[in-house]
Amino acid sequence: MTNRVNGVKESILEAAREAFSSKSYGDVSMEDIAKIANVKKPLIYYYFPSKSELFKAAWDEAFHKLEDKVFGVSENDGKYVKKAKSLLRSYIDFLRNERQSLRLIEREKNRFYSEKGSSWEHIKKEYDGFVNRVADVLSSEVDSNSSEYARAVADIVGSSALLPDGQMSPDTVELIIIKSLAK
Amino acid sequence: MTNRVNGVKESILEAAREAFSSKSYGDVSMEDIAKIANVKKPLIYYYFPSKSELFKAAWDEAFHKLEDKVFGVSENDGKYVKKAKSLLRSYIDFLRNERQSLRLIEREKNRFYSEKGSSWEHIKKEYDGFVNRVADVLSSEVDSNSSEYARAVADIVGSSALLPDGQMSPDTVELIIIKSLAK
DNA sequence: TCTGACTTTGACCTGTAAGTCAAAAAAATG
DNA sequence: CATTTTTTTGACTTACAGGTCAAAGTCAGA
């Protein structure tokens, strides 16, 4: 149902995020999104120029939420170990509360490595930047190749978002990560 | 190019696996597959009744390769710890050599939880069976909830297959898993 | 070489999804 | 109110993908 607090554009974005997180790009039609947002299809084109731009907007939003959550908490203070653990906790927290967004990110993050066209460069750079920031935090306390390690850790948590609901609890993920870091 | 050692049907399957592992179901067209297999589109329908059946066949093949690899090695003998480690090593080995197949499995395994129709039941059961067998091997030496843990471990390794090539080495994955199991 | 089974394809049909557009409805402005 | 601007939609075009089919090519055996 069209939200009253948010504007119409926001409702559409929200609908897009919902749709793209449960099916992949090619399986989602503009009709689908319109139906979820309780809006007619041409209205989407009033706010967004094309399907791919709408997709990018939805992705961007989900991604920035993740980024805010992760770095909002962990970048303040403290020893490295503490930092790393709090970063991972933020990630796990995000998994708990924003499963939909994380699913979208995980499912589609490979798209911009295969998709060509310079308009994807921006989004790709952002994602790489995120990984690097995670790397910076983790590298100081982990022996192995840091950026690869960071990507792996991000992936470990993220991958659980791809599972059907209720098949792996966030607690299990947490356990595994903490074990990984505990030495 | 159409393979001479394999028959035409095999070439098509191979092409399908390649296509479906780099893009997701809705983004792959029968034309794409035909082009990769160096064959005209209607020929695909001579060997496979529909796109979804072709997809299932490709998935099945990739999945059985994984299953063979993993259980072929680890089910022979030995102590639990040894068993579990060899199982994971098989998995990692598979990741090393059959990145394409694993990518297909990881990217699309959620499909049959959302897709309806009884013809998906079979493939779903097989996947669940696989997870359970992994659980059986791992549960004997791990404290936490075993089946969830098994799924998580399978996922940890599998998820790396979703990364673009060369961004996380199998060694990194191995390191993480061994660390997880080492206690 | 003729015949019949198998394999391959060009041409076509059909449905559906992306995207357009002119006009209607609603809101804002004077 | 009247008019202008913004928002919304029904009806349409266009392109392309899944799927069909009849006919053409290939090849083995009688």
Report on the architecture of this protein:
- Two copies of one chain form a homodimer.
- With 183 residues, chain A is mainly α.
- Chain A folds into two domains: 48 residues, Homeodomain-like (Arc Repressor Mutant, subunit A, Orthogonal Bundle); 130 residues, Tetracycline Repressor, domain 2.
- In chain A, 72% of the residues lie in helices and 0% in strands.
- In chain A, helix 1 crosses helix 6, helix 4 crosses helix 5 and helix 5 packs antiparallel against helix 10.
- Chain A is globular, with a radius of gyration of 18 Å.
- In chain A, 34% of the residues are buried.
- The interface between A and B is large, with 38 and 38 residues.
- The structure holds a DNA duplex (30 and 30 nucleotides).
Task: Break the fold down into its secondary structure elements and pairings.
Two copies of one chain form a homodimer.
Chain A: H1 8-22, H2 30-37, H3 41-47, H4 51-74, H5 80-97, H6 99-108, H7 111-114, H8 121-139, H9 146-159, H10 170-182
Helix pairs in contact in A: 1-2, 1-4, 1-6, 4-5, 4-6, 5-10, 8-9
The structure holds a DNA duplex (30 and 30 nucleotides).
